[in-house]
């Protein structure tokens, strides 16, 4: 058995081989490429260029972007809560959010709940449904499309980014990279390091939006009607 495959994967591939009436190939190595056709697209661009491209592209798909310092994250969260008249706020239970002092900044201003795994799942979900704001931490940002990538597991429930009216995602500027290709390299590195991936990897490009057969665009139908990305330097 190939040591890189689980018994279930081996069983699945063997069934396919049987249906095709041919033996499975073995000792096959992945091709190694010296260059990639997209490499030239971002030659000469630095991290600041990627950040500016991300901002422009996210704004182009109706996302809201604010660039701030790490010391101003809590204050900016309160500012957004005031703007949207938020009364109920839910956030991930994530140590990185605690470092920004978000809970302390919101104390006494809103009803605030964290997605803690020791709490009842259904109760948390109902609270997320009625929340005006959900706060998450972004793993990666893609400058080419203005996309943010979230890892969901444990205290990082996906309902926090899907059910509230407004989603606020915090993105460290150094986590912005050109495109999906580089993101998958990082994700592969995460798997190699931990031996597993999160239960869900969530790609979000702007606020929820959909269009009917007449191509009338509507936002907020299947998720948050607003997306704020706080780029933190």
Could you explain how this protein is built, in words?
The protein has 233 residues and is an alpha/beta fold. 33% of the residues lie in helices and 24% in strands. It is built from eight helices and twelve strands. The strands form three sheets. The protein has a six-stranded parallel sheet with strand order 1-12-7-4-2-3, sandwiched between helices. Strand 5 and strand 6 form a beta hairpin.
Question: What attributes does this structure have?
Answer:
single chain, 233 residues, alpha/beta, six-stranded parallel sheet, four-stranded mixed sheet, globular
Regions with little confidence, pLDDT below 50 for 5+ residues: none
Number of strands: 12
Order of helices and strands: HHEHEHHEHEEEHEEHEEEE
Radius of gyration: 21 Å
Our measurement of the CA-to-CA distance between the termini, rounded to an integer number of angstroms, reads 47 Å
Q: Which overall shape is indicated by the principal axes computed on the Cα atoms?
A: globular
Secondary-structure blueprint of this entry?
Elements: H1 7-20, H2 47-60, E1 64-68, H3 73-83, E2 88-92, H4 95-99, H5 102-106, E3 111-115, H6 121-130, E4 133-137, E5 140-142, E6 147-152, H7 159-162, E7 166-172, E8 176-177, H8 180-194, E9 200-204, E10 209-211, E11 217-219, E12 226-232
Parallel strand pairs: 1-12, 2-3, 2-4, 4-7, 5-8, 7-12
Antiparallel strand pairs: 5-6, 6-9, 10-11
Structure in a nutshell:
This protein is α/β, with parallel strands linked by helices and 233 residues long. It has eight helices and twelve strands.
């Amino acid at each position: 058995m190939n040591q890189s495959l689980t018994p279930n994967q081996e069983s699945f591939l063997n069934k396919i081989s049987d249906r095709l009436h041919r033996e499975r190939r073995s000792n096959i190595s992945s091709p190694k490429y010296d260059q990639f056709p997209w490499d030239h697209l971002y030659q000469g661009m630095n991290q600041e260029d990627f950040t500016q491209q991300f901002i422009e592209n996210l704004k182009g798909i109706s996302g809201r972007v604010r660039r701030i310092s790490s010391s101003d994250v809590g204050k900016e969260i309160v500012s957004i809560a005031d703007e949207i008249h938020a009364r109920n706020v839910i956030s991930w239970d994530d140590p990185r959010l605690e470092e920004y002092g978000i809970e302390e900044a919101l104390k006494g201003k809103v009803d605030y709940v964290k997605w803690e795994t020791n709490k009842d799942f259904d109760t948390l979900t109902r609270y997320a449904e009625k929340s005006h704001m959900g706060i998450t931490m972004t793993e990666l940002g893609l400058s080419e499309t203005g996309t943010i990538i979230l890892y969901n597991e444990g205290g990082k429930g996906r309902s926090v980014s899907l059910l509230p009216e407004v989603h606020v995602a915090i993105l460290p500027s150094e986590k912005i990279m050109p495109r999906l290709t580089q993101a998958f390299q990082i994700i592969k590195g995460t798997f190699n390091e931990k031996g597993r991936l999160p239960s869900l990897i969530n790609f979000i490009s702007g606020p929820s939006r959909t269009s009917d057969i007449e191509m009338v665009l509507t936002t907020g139908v299947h998720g948050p009607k607003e997306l704020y990305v706080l780029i933190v330097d």
